[in-house]
Amino acid sequence: MPDIATITTHYPSDPPTRFDLQQSTEPIINAVNDIIGRPEINSALIDTVSLTAAATVLIKHTLGRNYVGWYVVDKTADARVWRDTSSDAKANLYLPLACSADVDVKVVVF
Question: Does residue 13 lie in a domain region?
């Protein structure tokens, strides 16, 4: 084991330049921007929506943009839930859902 007194630390003789800093932080910034830019990050939890069989329910999602996707995170009955593609609801405001049986659901919209 070397003696503490003989260990030396070498620093660059010149401080880092703006280019050096930008070059070293650019991959980090790109990674963070990639994560922030994902639609799943900007999502909305819609708490307890009552769906009725044989009816389309328009769920207001408040994203301020067209939704990209959605998924059910909780439901109170054994029912299939799907997006009603025949609905003419505006995708920047509503998610049109239909179901096979009456059910209360919680939905994440992204």
Answer: no
Contact 27, 81 (CB under 8 A): no
pLDDT 10s digit of each residue in the chain, 110 long? 555 555 555 555 666 666 666 677 888 888 888 888 787 888 999 999 999 998 999 999 999 999 999 999 999 999 999 999 999 999 999 999 999 999 999 999 99
How many other C-beta atoms lie within 10 A of the C-beta of residue 101?
Answer: 14
In the chain, how many domains are there?
A: 1
Instruction: Tell whether 3 is covered by a domain.
Output: no
Q: What pTM, to 2 d.p., does this model score?
A: 0.68
- The range of the structural domain enclosing residue 86 comes to 44-109
